[in-house]
């Protein structure tokens, strides 16, 4: 522990934390009542001066209340380290005391938004396994204090002192060129849908403003009068789609750069330290032994560009609503960078062995059965809503797509058995390759439906601390082999899943 930083006695975060907490309270209020704010702005010209005065007075009162609340939150938020436990006391009226043993801590992450960067403080997030209520966020600590706390909490597993990241060579670095490749291969359809939703919302706002000005229906009237011109203008429609596509691509570029700019991964003893972010800078400490399994993902475009994503899955609680909070992702990795990570986590394992074991053909049959059921429901809905003329066209377009995706999904579903790791491949357009160490398995089940029993096939389900992983529809004899071998490796392993 840093001698200049004492965590043996209860201490508070930096006084600058009052400002951070205060602004966070204001942000939450604006997020909750933004619609009322828009209405107030629209109706501002029609509100009397007396009413405006009372509104300003009310807003001032709320801001004062937030300031008092921020101070009380700051004052009652105290923490210390005692007997290999992180102890926290917080609460204004309802006092809460939390004690977390060091071995329950999964990650110690640093974070800086724009405000925190301006006032030179760091947010420290302590993530634990098994309980969503044990997550701790310290809003404002100096870098020195935050680093000392990280080293103190991880004293058994990390080297004391803080390394200078400017002079330490990273284990893995994702440059600007790789991030541009990532942004260009993002899901732009999602961005297009979001843009469309924004345009619809903007249209509704214009309609409401027009109504407030006594010009009801003026926009609808204009569109109606020019409807024929708009429909006949192919160039206008195509141009609009191209513009939205360009905006979607630009938004993806901005989003990726903001989130992953200057992405670096350092190896420090038994942990990976991940640094990334532009406006909001994040630092994540990921202990190797806390990783339950990893997944390598890519699509055809990403594969052509030579990049993949590495996803680390950690232990989650059943109470945790946002499982993505327990997922750490490294984007834009080259093949050799992926090899560095896999060799680090799974040394001496022949992960690229060619002994692939594919799912039984019944898996393909099940996929077709589900697809046909979906098409059947779609056809019924079209007939019910008197769109029977679209039934033929819809089936003509969807049937080839169903065949394509089913065949692709079946082709990509296989597993590879290694001495200590099982590799599971899945996906359709995207390919997901999961590496699961046997000793991380908490429970293994063989599940079988009536139809599967007739064909002597079964689903193998691995239960880990990060969730379930399934191998669908494999021969019973092969499933039994996996089942017995997994139990053997779990019972004989001296390693802990945490």
SS field, number of helical segments = 16
Instruction: Determine the structural class based on helices, strands and strand pairing.
Output: alpha+beta
Beta-strand content estimate: 15-25%
Q: Main beta sheet: strand number and arrangement?
A: 7 strands, antiparallel
Estimated radius of gyration: 28 Å
Helix content: 40-55%
Key descriptive features of the protein:
single chain; 498 residues; alpha+beta; PH-domain like; 3 domains; 7-stranded antiparallel sheet; 25% strand; globular
What is the strand and helix layout of this fold?
Layout: H1 17-32, H2 34-42, H3 49-76, E1 78-82, E2 85-90, E3 96-101, E4 105-112, H4 114-118, E5 122-128, E6 136-141, H5 143-153, E7 172-174, H6 176-184, H7 188-212, H8 218-225, H9 227-232, H10 234-260, E8 263-268, E9 271-276, E10 281-287, E11 291-298, H11 300-305, E12 308-314, E13 327-333, H12 335-345, E14 357-358, H13 361-384, H14 389-412, E15 414-417, E16 421-427, E17 431-437, E18 443-447, H15 450-455, E19 457-464, E20 467-475, H16 476-492
Helix pairs in contact: 1-3, 6-10, 7-10, 13-14
Overview of this protein structure:
By secondary structure, this protein is an alpha+beta fold. It folds into 3 domains: 17-153, no CATH class; 184-259; 357-492, PH-domain like. It has helices at residues 17-32, 34-42, 49-76, 114-118, 143-153, 176-184, 188-212, 218-225, 227-232, 234-260, 300-305, 335-345, 361-384, 389-412, 450-455, 476-492; strands at residues 78-82, 85-90, 96-101, 105-112, 122-128, 136-141, 172-174, 263-268, 271-276, 281-287, 291-298, 308-314, 327-333, 357-358, 414-417, 421-427, 431-437, 443-447, 457-464, 467-475. The chain has a 7-stranded antiparallel sheet with strand order 6-5-4-10-9-8-7. Strands 13-12-11-17-16-15-14 form a 7-stranded antiparallel sheet. The longest helix is centred in the first third of the chain and has 28 residues, at 49-76. The two termini are 24 Å apart.
């Amino acid at each position: 522990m840093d001698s200049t930083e004492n965590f043996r006695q209860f201490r508070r975060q930096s006084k600058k934390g009052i400002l951070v907490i205060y602004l966070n309270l204001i942000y939450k209020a604006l997020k909750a009542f933004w619609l009322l704010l828009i209405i107030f702005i629209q109706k501002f010209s029609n509100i009397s001066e007396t009413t405006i005065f009372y509104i300003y007075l009310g807003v001032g009162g709320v801001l004062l209340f937030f300031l008092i609340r921020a101070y009380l939150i700051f004052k009652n938020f105290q923490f210390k380290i005692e007997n290999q436990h992180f102890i926290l006391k917080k609460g204004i009226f309802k006092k809460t005391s939390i004690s977390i043993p060091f071995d329950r801590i999964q990650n110690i992450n640093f974070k800086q938004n724009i405000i925190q960067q301006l006032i030179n403080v760091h947010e420290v997030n302590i993530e634990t396994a098994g309980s969503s209520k044990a997550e701790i966020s310290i809003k404002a600590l100096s870098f020195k204090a935050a680093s000392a706390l990280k080293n103190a909490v991880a004293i058994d597993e990390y080297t004391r002192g803080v390394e200078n990241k400017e002079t330490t060579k990273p284990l893995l670095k994702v440059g600007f060129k790789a991030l541009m490749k990532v942004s260009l291969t993002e899901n732009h359809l999602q961005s297009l849908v979001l843009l469309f939703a924004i345009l619809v919302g903007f249209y509704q706002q214009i309609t409401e403003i027009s109504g407030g000005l006594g010009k009801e229906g003026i926009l609808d009237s204009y569109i109606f009068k020019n409807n024929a011109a708009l429909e006949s203008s192919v160039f206008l429609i195509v141009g609009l789609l191209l513009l939205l596509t360009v905006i979607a691509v630009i938004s993806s570029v901005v989003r990726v750069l903001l989130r992953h700019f200057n992405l670096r991964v350092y190896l420090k003893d038994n942990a990976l330290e991940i640094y990334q972010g532009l406006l909001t800078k994040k630092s994540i400490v990921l202990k190797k032994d806390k990783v339950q399994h990893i997944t390598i993902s890519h699509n055809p475009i990403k594969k052509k560009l030579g990049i993949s994503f590495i996803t680390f899955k950690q232990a989650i609680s059943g109470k945790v609503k946002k499982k993505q909070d327990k997922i750490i992702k490294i984007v834009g990795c080259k093949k050799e960078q992926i090899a560095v990570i896999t060799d680090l986590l799974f040394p001496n394992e022949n992960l690229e062995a060619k002994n692939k074991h594919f799912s039984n053909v019944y898996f393909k049959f099940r996929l077709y059965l589900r697809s046909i059921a979906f098409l059947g429901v779609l056809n019924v809905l079209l007939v019910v809503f008197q769109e029977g003329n679209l039934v033929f066209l819809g089936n003509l377009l969807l049937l080839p797509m169903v065949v394509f995706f089913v065949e692709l999904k079946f082709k990509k579903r296989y597993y590879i058995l290694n001495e200590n790791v099982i590799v599971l491949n899945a996906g359709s357009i995207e390919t997901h390759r999961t590496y699961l160490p046997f000793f991380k398995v908490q429970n293994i089940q063989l599940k079988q439906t009536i139809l599967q029993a007739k064909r002597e096939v079964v689903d193998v389900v691995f239960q880990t601390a990060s969730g379930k992983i399934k191998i669908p529809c494999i021969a019973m004899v092969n499933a039994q082999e996996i089942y017995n071998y997994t139990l053997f490796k779990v019972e004989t392993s001296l390693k802990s899943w945490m």
